[in-house]
C-alpha cells in the first residue's frame, strides 16, 4: 500500500509540474467541448431565427403573369426579385437559394379555370436553403388551396368536397426532448474529455518512462509490477476525473450562453444531471486509462504511443456517429455495452426521461467488466520482460 | 554475497549468456570484464530479476532469487544500464521516491539521503531539478537512489561510462568505500585499466561464457603475461570491444 501511494503521489506531483499535460488535462480537454458547442449552437440558432422571420428576395421568372400570386408572396415577406437567365445554374452555383418559374401559359390557363404550373427550383442537398424553400412552397400551396376553395364556393359546393381528409398535427415532443435532438453529440464531448484528460499521462507514465530509460531502475525496486501499474492507473484516472468534472461544470453554464427560450426548448444541465453523468462515466474513466496504458506499453517511444492513441481515439466516436445516422430503439442489452450505454443514457438525461436503476446497473456492470479486462491486459503487458528494456 | 550458477539466456537464436558461473563475496570488489556484447548486461539483469534465466540459479545471501524476487531485490542496490532520472523532480526527490518504494520510513529516508548526498559530494545539486544535469551528476543521483536502502550487495553496470576523469576517480573512491564498509560490490566494465585498478577478483566474460575467474595475481600467473592488459587479450583472444 505504501508503494502504491508512493507511485501515485510521485506521478501526480511530477505531472502537475508539466505544462503540456496540465494544459491538455485541465484546459483544452474539458473546455474545448463546451466552447465549441456554445459557438455552434449560437450560429445555428441565429441563422434559423433569421431565416424564419426575415423578408427574403426570390427571383421570379414570369412575375407579370401572376400578379395575385406575387401579392400573396409579398404578404408573407417574400419579395419577387428580377428574373435570372439560367435559374438551374443559379441554384447550383449558390447564387440563389430558390427560384420560381411561372409557366408562360399561366394567365391563359388561370382565366379558363384550368390547373397551372409554378416551378420551384432548388437544391435539396443544401441544408441552409431548406428554410426559404419551405416558406415559398407553403405560401404557394396555401394560395392554391385558398383559390380552390373560392372556386368551389362560387359553384355552390363546400370546400370539404375537394379535401375530405384534414391533417391535424399533434406534436408530442416536449421542449426538453426537442433540446435532446440538438444536444445528441454531448455524450461524445464527455467521452473525449475523459480520453484527452488521461492521454498524456498514460503516454508519459509508460512509453515516456521507457523512452527516458527510467522504467528499468523503477522495476529494480522491491515492488510488484502490478502495484506500480495500479499507482500509475490511479494517477491517470485522477487527471481524467478532474477533466470530466471541469467539463461537466462548464457545460452546466451553457444555457446562459445559448438563447434556449427562443428555440422553445428546456435545458437542464444542473447538479443532478452532472452527478448522474459522473456516476455513469466512472467505468469509462478506468476503462480508458487501462486501454491507454496497455497501448502505450506496446510503444517504444512517446511519439509512437501518440500515434497509436490517436487511432484509439476514433473508437469513442463510433457510437455517437452510429446513433446519429441510424437512430435505434434502446434495448436493455445496449446499456451494458461501454460507450454505447453512456451515449444512450446521457441523451436520455437531456431529454428529461431520466435513467432507471436497471439501466444504471447494466452500465456500471458492463463498463467495469470491460475495464477489468483492460486492466488485466495492461498488467500482462507490464509483466513482459521486454517492457523494461529501453534499447 | 552473490552466487551465480550456470546461467543461460537466449533471445531467439542468439545465445546471449551461455553457462555463466561465479561468486562475488562480501568485502570485495568483483569486476565483470568483457568486450561490448559479451553478455555482461544480460547477466546482471538476471541477477536483479529483471529477466528470468532459461536455466541456472542466482543466490543472493544464500537465497534463490526467483523463489521470492521482491525480497531478493530488497537485498540489492542496482545501478542499471538505463539510468534515466525523473527530470521534473529534484535530485533529492528522485532519491526520496526510491526510498519510499523500498518501504523506508520518512526518518530513515532523510537520514540515508543526507548521508549519500555527502558521500557522493552532491550537496550543490540536491535541490535542483535533474533536467539538464551533466552525465556525472546524473550518475551520482542514480547511485544515490539505488543505495538509499543501505543494501549489502551493490550491482553497478558500467558505472564510469561517459564520466570525465575527475568523476571517474570519485566513482572509484566511492566503490572502495563501499567495499571497506563490508559490502559485496559487483560491477561490469569493458575498460581493462579500471578493472585492474579496482578489483579483488576478476571474472572475464566472452561470448556468453566465463573464460577466467581469478585474483589479478593468479590471472597473470595463469596466462604467463607480464601485465593484466596482455592477460585479458590473451584470454579473450582479441582486444576488439575492449578499452585500455
Q: Can you give a write-up of this model?
A:
- The complex is a heterodimer of chains A (391) and B (244).
- Chain A has 391 residues and is mainly alpha-helical.
- Chain A folds into two domains: 257 residues, no CATH class; 116 residues, 3-Layer(aba) Sandwich (abc type-2 transporter like fold), CATH 3.40.1710.
- Chain B is 37% helix and 25% strand.
- Chain B folds into two domains: 168 residues, 3-Layer(aba) Sandwich (Rossmann fold), CATH 3.40.50; 68 residues, no CATH class.
- In chain B, a hairpin with a 2-residue loop joins β1 and β2.
- The interface between A and B is medium-sized, with 29 and 29 residues.
Summary?
The complex is a heterodimer of chains A (391) and B (244). Chain A has 19 helices and four strands.
The largest beta-sheet of chain B arranges its strands as 6-7-8-3-9-10
Distance between the termini of chain A: 31 Å
Main interface: chain pair and counts: A-B, 29 and 29 residues
Low-confidence stretches of chain A: none
* Biggest sheet details of chain A: 4 strands, mixed
Structural class of chain A: mainly alpha
Question: Strand arrangement, largest sheet of chain A?
Answer: 2-1-3-4
Overall geometry of chain A comes to elongated
Structural class of chain B: alpha/beta
Unreliable spans of chain B are none
Features:
heterodimer, A: 391 residues, mainly alpha, abc type-2 transporter like fold, 2 domains, 4-stranded mixed beta sheet, 19 helices, 4 strands, 5% strand, elongated, B: 244 residues, alpha/beta, Rossmann fold, 6-stranded mixed beta sheet, 4-stranded antiparallel beta sheet, 9 helices, 10 strands, 37% helix, globular
Topology:
The complex is a heterodimer of chains A (391) and B (244).
Chain A: H1 2-16, H2 19-53, E1 56-61, H3 67-75, E2 78-81, H4 87-92, E3 98-102, H5 106-112, E4 118-122, H6 130-154, H7 175-182, H8 186-211, H9 215-219, H10 225-252, H11 254-257, H12 260-263, H13 271-298, H14 302-312, H15 317-325, H16 332-335, H17 340-351, H18 357-383, H19 385-388
Parallel strand pairs in A: 1-2, 1-3
Antiparallel strand pairs in A: 3-4
Helix pairs in contact in A: 1-10, 2-8, 2-10, 7-17, 8-10, 8-13, 8-14, 10-13, 13-14, 13-17, 13-18
Chain B: E1 2-11, E2 14-24, E3 29-33, H1 40-47, E4 55-60, E5 63-64, H2 69-74, E6 76-79, H3 91-101, H4 106-119, H5 135-146, E7 153-157, H6 165-180, E8 184-189, H7 192-198, E9 201-206, E10 209-214, H8 216-223, H9 228-236
Parallel strand pairs in B: 3-8, 3-9, 6-7, 7-8
Antiparallel strand pairs in B: 1-2, 1-4, 4-5, 9-10
Helix pairs in contact in B: 3-4, 3-5, 8-9
Amino acid at each position: 500500500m505504501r508503494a502504491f501511494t508512493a507511485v501515485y503521489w510521485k506521478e501526480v506531483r511530477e505531472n502537475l509540474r508539466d505544462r503540456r499535460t496540465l494544459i491538455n488535462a485541465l484546459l483544452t480537454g474539458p473546455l474545448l467541448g463546451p466552447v465549441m458547442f456554445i459557438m455552434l449552437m449560437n450560429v445555428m440558432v441565429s441563422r434559423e431565427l433569421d431565416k424564419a422571420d426575415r423578408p427574403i428576395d426570390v427571383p421570379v421568372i414570369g412575375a407579370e403573369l401572376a400578379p395575385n400570386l406575387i401579392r400573396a408572396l409579398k404578404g408573407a415577406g417574400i419579395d419577387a426579385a428580377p428574373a435570372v437567365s439560367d435559374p438551374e445554374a443559379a441554384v447550383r452555383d449558390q447564387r440563389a437559394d430558390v427560384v420560381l418559374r411561372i409557366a408562360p401559359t399561366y394567365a391563359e390557363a388561370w382565366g379558363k379555370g384550368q390547373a397551372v404550373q409554378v416551378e420551384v427550383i432548388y437544391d435539396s442537398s443544401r441544408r441552409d436553403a431548406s428554410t426559404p424553400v419551405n416558406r415559398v412552397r407553403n405560401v404557394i400551396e396555401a394560395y392554391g388551396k385558398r383559390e380552390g376553395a373560392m372556386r368551389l364556393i362560387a359553384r355552390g359546393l363546400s370546400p370539404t368536397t375537394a379535401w375530405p381528409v384534414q391533417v391535424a398535427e399533434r406534436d408530442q415532443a416536449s421542449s426538453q426532448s426537442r433540446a435532446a435532438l440538438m444536444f445528441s453529440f454531448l455524450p461524445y464531448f464527455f467521452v473525449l474529455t475523459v480520453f484527452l484528460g488521461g492521454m498524456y499521462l498514460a503516454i508519459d507514465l509508460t512509453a515516456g518512462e521507457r523512452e527516458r530509460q527510467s522504467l528499468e531502475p523503477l522495476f529494480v525496486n522491491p515492488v510488484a509490477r502490478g502495484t506500480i501499474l495500479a499507482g500509475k492507473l490511479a494517477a491517470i484516472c485522477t487527471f481524467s476525473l478532474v477533466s470530466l468534472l471541469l467539463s461537466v461544470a462548464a457545460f452546466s453554464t451553457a444555457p446562459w450562453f445559448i438563447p434556449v427560450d427562443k428555440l422553445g426548448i428546456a435545458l437542464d444541465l444542473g447538479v443532478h444531471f452532472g452527478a448522474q453523468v459522473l456516476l455513469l462515466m466512472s467505468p469509462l474513466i478506468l476503462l480508458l486509462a487501462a486501454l491507454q496504458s496497455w497501448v502505450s506499453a506496446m510503444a517504444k517511444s512517446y511519439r509512437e504511443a501518440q500515434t497509436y492513441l490517436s487511432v484509439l481515439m476514433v473508437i469513442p466516436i463510433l457510437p455517437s456517429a452510429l446513433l446519429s445516422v441510424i437512430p435505434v430503439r434502446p434495448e436493455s442489452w445496449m446499456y451494458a455495452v461501454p460507450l454505447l450505454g453512456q451515449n444512450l443514457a446521457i441523451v436520455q438525461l437531456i431529454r428529461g426521461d431520466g435513467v432507471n436503476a436497471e439501466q444504471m446497473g447494466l452500465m456500471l456492470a458492463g463498463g467495469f467488466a470491460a475495464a477489468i479486462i483492460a486492466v488485466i491486459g495492461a498488467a500482462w503487458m507490464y509483466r513482459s520482460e521486454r517492457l523494461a528494456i529501453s534499447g | 554475497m552473490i552466487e551465480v550458477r550456470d546461467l543461460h539466456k537466449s533471445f531467439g537464436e542468439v545465445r546471449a549468456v551461455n553457462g555463466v558461473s561465479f561468486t562475488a563475496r562480501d568485502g570485495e570488489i568483483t569486476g565483470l570484464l568483457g568486450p561490448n556484447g559479451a553478455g555482461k548486461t544480460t547477466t546482471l539483469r538476471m541477477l536483479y530479476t529483471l529477466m528470468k534465466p532459461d536455466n541456472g540459479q542466482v543466490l543472493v545471501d544464500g537465497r534463490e532469487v526467483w523463489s521470492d524476487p521482491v525480497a531478493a531485490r530488497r537485498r540489492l542496490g542496482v545501478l542499471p544500464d538505463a539510468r534515466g532520472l525523473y527530470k521534473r523532480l529534484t535530485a533529492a526527490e528522485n532519491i526520496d521516491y526510491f526510498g519510499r518504494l523500498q518501504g523506508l520510513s520518512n526518518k530513515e529516508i532523510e537520514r540515508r539521503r543526507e548521508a549519500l548526498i555527502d558521500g557522493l559530494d552532491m550537496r550543490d545539486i540536491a535541490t535542483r531539478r535533474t533536467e539538464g544535469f551533466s552525465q556525472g551528476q546524473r550518475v551520482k543521483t542514480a547511485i544515490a537512489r539505488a543505495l538509499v536502502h543501505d543494501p549489502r550487495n551493490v550491482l553497478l553496470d558500467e558505472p564510469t561510462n561517459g564520466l570525465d576523469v575527475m568523476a571517474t576517480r570519485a566513482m572509484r573512491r566511492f566503490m572502495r568505500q563501499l567495499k571497506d564498509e563490508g559490502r559485496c560490490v559487483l560491477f561490469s566494465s569493458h575498460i581493462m585499466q579500471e578493472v585492474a585498478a579496482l578489483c579483488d577478483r576478476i571474472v572475464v566474460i566472452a561470448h556468453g561464457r566465463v573464460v577466467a575467474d581469478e585474483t589479478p595475481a593468479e590471472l597473470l600467473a595463469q596466462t604467463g603475461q607480464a601485465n593484466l592488459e596482455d592477460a585479458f587479450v590473451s584470454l579473450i583472444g582479441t582486444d576488439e570491444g575492449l578499452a585500455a
